[in-house]
Specification:
The structure holds 2 protein chains of 2 kinds. By secondary structure, chain A is an all-alpha fold. Chain A has helices at 9-26, 35-53, 59-93. Chain A is built from 3 helices and no strands. The longest helix of chain A has 35 residues, at 59-93. In chain B, the strands form 4 sheets. In chain B, strands 7-6-5-8-9-10 form a 6-stranded mixed β-sheet. In chain B, strands 13-12-11-14-15-16 form a 6-stranded mixed β-sheet. The chains are: A mainly alpha, B alpha/beta. Chains A and B meet through α1, α2 and α3 of A and α1 and α2 of B.
Chain lengths: 97, 464
């Protein structure tokens, strides 16, 4: 997949930046999906990863699934980095209790 | 870590724009990715020896279809596609080229094209054979109906190339190779072509053999055309060798005394046995015609044309067959030339003199048997005698001065009688002719030279 990433690296970068943005917002925002829905969504993601690794879906849909999961992975990385950064910035600006 | 779990529940809304990004990414990248993978997969198997190769890409999955010439070659080609970076799966639809048993290859020639059919073992063999066919048969269309198959015998390429050389020597026909057995049929292009092919087949690679060689030689043609308007005798076709050529042209010169001999003959092998023994009497018969064509095709002799008078036509129709060697066939289509207008005695004398000035009546040496070389002349003399029915003619025999005087006298009388007999067989009444022998008493030239003696040995026609 690395060799063909030259054809969609822009979209990967966009996914990473979107993740950074969502991660940055997530630290101070209220709300979000419920625990149950969150778990279901993670199960769904795990299922899709399993299907991709097992190469169960052939042809173009298989490629699109791989592409989506890679973009999602970079999005998650962006989220983690964004949230950590925001948390670090917030904790530095607040005096210790 | 707890923070991450807590924050992650708020990351999900970002998935919605992410899905939009994904849609765009899939839309814009799918076809370029597929084209790139197809190009690299094709490059990976570029040097592999394969037939009917087809690479199709859907997403990152490559479908590879081809016919390979060995199991190792097939596996290595599939592995080469599989190792192209970026390929996710290879759908292997490759298989081995079917085996041919027996392994048959053929080259067939007709008037306009050469068709190569059957099986070739490798694309390179097929290409070489096509190239060789086009080079050898310059200008002739080469049609390729060869398929590829496994199971060719060893040294197939050199055997097929040798056979392809031979197709150039055929006018039409077929050369087929079935495993190691060669079979040939058809008609050779030239005389001697059949022998040349048979000689070339001795150089077939080891293990190959000729199962059937039914190549026929073209007919051995000899033609002579007598044209009274142009006063020519045109000889075309073949003669066995230079000696026979010279002998035939010399015989034609003697027989056709008033025609120019146009010699277009070529020497060639393949003459039927008895060729010379048949050609000479056939030319004698042609010399008796006013206009005519002689065609000798192998052992078949066909003579057509116009005889000078009715009796000559009958003699030519019936008499010639017995002069040919055994096994020869003779077919005569003889009609009779319309009779010329009658003339008076003085013109008749002039016509006789003109004819006898061009040629002399020849006899066998020391005998009174008329030479076949003089039949044409005698027919013309007969025709002239028929034109002056009221004239009485003295047929005067003369000899040179060599030998005994009495013997010469007797010989000249017998020769004059032989000529008179010939004229009588032409339908003229005996009462009109007086054969007389003068021996050597009336020389027209000196008897001290060979040339003078030859002039003195003669038959004169004197109109009374």
């Amino acid at each position: 997949m690395g060799n063909v990433a030259t054809f969609f690296w822009g979209w990967l970068l966009a996914s990473l930046l979107l993740g950074l943005l969502m991660g940055w917002i997530a630290v101070v925002q209220r709300g979000g999906v419920s625990k149950t829905v969150g778990r279901l969504l993670w199960v769904l993601v795990a299922g899709l990863v399993a299907v991709a690794l097992a190469r169960l879906i052939p042809g173009r849909p298989g490629y699109w699934l791989d592409l989506g999961l890679i973009m999602f992975t970079l999005y998650l990385c962006g989220c983690v980095i964004g949230s950590c950064l925001r948390d670090w910035v917030v904790s530095r600006s607040q005096p210790p209790a | 870590m707890r923070g991450l779990f807590r924050w992650s529940s708020k990351w999900w809304p970002g998935v919605i724009p992410l899905l939009i990004f994904w849609g765009f990414a899939a839309w814009t990248s799918t076809e370029p990715v597929e084209a790139d993978l197809a190009a690299r997969a094709n490059a990976a198997v570029k040097d592999a020896i394969l037939d009917k190769k087809r690479v199709t890409v859907a997403g990152r999955d490559v479908t590879f279809a081809a016919e390979a010439f060995s199991e190792d070659g097939r596996r290595s080609a599939v592995a080469a596609v599989d190792t192209v970076p970026g390929v996710r799966l290879v759908n292997d639809e490759s298989r081995l080229v079917p085996a041919a048993n027996p392994f048959v290859w053929a080259a067939e020639r007709d008037v306009v094209r050469v068709t190569l059919s059957g099986s070739a073992p490798l694309p390179s063999s097929k290409g070489k054979l096509l190239e060789a066919a086009r080079a050898n048969l310059g200008g002739i269309e080469v049609s390729d109906q060869m398929t590829l198959a496994r199971g060719a015998p060893a040294r197939f390429d050199s055997a097929a190339a040798l056979l392809l050389d031979q197709i150039g020597k055929l006018k039409d026909g077929k050369i087929a190779l079935s495993d190691t057995k060669v079979s040939l049929s058809g008609m050779a292009r030239d005389l001697g072509g059949r022998e040349a092919i048979a000689a070339a087949l001795r150089n077939l690679p080891e293990g190959y053999s000729v199962a059937a060689n039914d190549v026929k030689a073209p007919p051995y043609i000899f033609q002579a055309y007598k044209d009274p308007v142009a006063s020519t005798l045109t000889l075309t076709g073949y003669v066995p060798d230079n000696n026979a050529h010279a002998a035939l042209v010399a015989a034609a010169g003697r027989k056709f005394f008033s025609e120019k001999v146009v010699d277009n003959l070529k020497a060639s092998v393949g003459a039927p046995s008895g060729f010379a023994a048949a050609a000479v009497p056939a030319l004698s018969a042609l010399s008796r015609l006013s206009t005519g064509t002689l065609v000798m095709s192998d052992r078949e002799v066909k003579l057509s044309g116009d005889a000078l008078y009715e009796a000559a036509a009958t003699q030519i129709r019936n008499g010639l067959g017995k002069d040919f060697p055994q096994g020869w066939q003779y077919k005569a289509e003889i009609s009779v030339k319309p009779p010329s207008a009658p003339v008076d005695a003085s013109v008749c004398q002039q016509l006789f003199a003109d004819l006898l000035a061009k040629a002399r009546i020849r006899f066998e040496s020391g005998r009174a048997d008329i030479s076949p070389d003089s039949l044409g002349l005698l027919d013309r003399l007969t025709e002239t005698a028929l034109r002056c029915p009221s004239a009485n003619i003295e047929i005067a025999g003369h000899t040179d001065a060599d030998g005994d005087q009495n013997a010469n006298q007797t010989l000249s009388e017998k020769r004059a009688q032989a000529v008179a007999d010939y004229l009588l067989r032409g339908g003229l009444p005996a009462s009109r002719f007086t054969p007389v022998g003068y021996g050597s008493t009336q020389p027209v030239a000196g008897n001290d030279s060979e040339d003078g003696k030859a002039q003195n040995r003669r038959i004169d026609f004197v109109v009374k």
